[in-house]
């Protein structure tokens, strides 16, 4: 499948697998900051510090000591990201010494892992443009403890073998060192990446080990994320037909509850009857299947009583296509820990995705070759991700006009001119050097990520036919146009992952509402995107778009559980705190996401 490069007579290249010669020829992004840019950066830091101090004083005197403490932690995370080594080589500027890029992302990544087997792990820091949050000290401690646990419990270790034997016995055992979450693939690539992140966070919160069962269509997408051990589920795992279990198997949590094979008991240490009831429970099953997909068959997973029941099960099989992290915040067992891990709630997916999801060399080769050929020399990179849904589709002309109207409203894409503009203020928009990477200066690269070529061609034509204000030169690019989603094909998924990474290297993003592809791109980029509103009812939305207040993904199908079902919700969790941080998504009024 060709990649279209929109320079003057831009020569299309091809997305191909890595080979040794291509890897050796990969170029690191080069350049450094100009003095004028550094002066602007200094003033920006002064302004940010001033605003944070004012916000801290407001929180202390108006909202109280606890809110002030949260603001202080967020401010510390922000300032650490600005001053603690989170500088990066900036490919958009030539001249001067390149700034040092913190390859470990502020301690997020473990040092010492093999560079040749996974080039992206330590090279990606040179390509990211935004480092909005440093990881909290508590998150770093939690990650290092997890890595040590994973090494002890990974496949091939004596502890893993012992756990598998316990699984074959048909029941779970108490007091074992290693408990597991097994991630199962469901839906498209964006959904899978978000559910992987969710599953990993759940493993962190519950001291479990995350293993993944990858089908062939995902076998060469991601590197091993944990040092010294694999996260791949061995093919001889005792539970058969994992890919074909579907949303409601016999071992799903709700089914087991209904059959009285597992019981959620209210935790009440002062009630002897409660203790006796707990002691009389049958031994928990060897494994439980968690159906947390769009049907949300096991919504009681998000209740404290049920979490205590699941804590006694050694093996949990996770079937989900959602980013369900925001819904964990209302669970009493996890609320406090999430606050310590992520003082800034909108940093959760951003930090976890950068920690967990590193593309393999085959994918990374596609990314770096395309970036260095078409995007590296731009002074501004804008990613535009366009997703058409069957339930919310509009004609191409209408969606194109929605994009342009949105851009004018939010001042995203370079503005084109009318016939009455002064020629002295204009520049030829369509850059003649964009395809060979020699743009430099006041040059904007627009990356289109879409299954279809129509929007790329129209946006490219707009900048070909019209000049821009402010002497901005523009290059428009689209790596692929596959025409249809083919999740069952590995090469399709590799190209899709490459595009997600390229979006993640953008300065600014325009994404489609309700698109998990766009959610992942925004999280990796560390950017609050401009979100194109979905065309519900096949009508052009008004307004056409909204600026995201939080860069967190939306949980599109949150569990609808009330106090009658989650009996401890009202008594234990601070409702005001949950309402302040878990709110309706900007792009979907039935979804929820994290806010600060």
From TrEMBL:
It is found in: Golgi apparatus, Golgi stack membrane. Keywords: Cell wall biogenesis/degradation, Glycoprotein, Glycosyltransferase, Golgi apparatus, Membrane, Transferase, Transmembrane, Transmembrane helix. GO terms for molecular function: galactoside 2-alpha-L-fucosyltransferase activity. Its EC number is 2.4.1.-. Residues 18-37 are annotated as: Disordered. GO terms for cellular component: Golgi cisterna membrane. The chain crosses the membrane at residues 46-64. It comes from the Eukaryota. One of its GO terms (biological process) is cell wall biogenesis. Its main location: Golgi. InterPro entries: XG_FTase. It is a single-pass type II membrane protein. Pfam families: XG_FTase. Belongs to the glycosyltransferase 37 family. May be involved in cell wall biosynthesis. PANTHER family: FUCOSYLTRANSFERASE, FUCOSYLTRANSFERASE 2-RELATED. This is Fucosyltransferase. It comes from Oryza nivara.
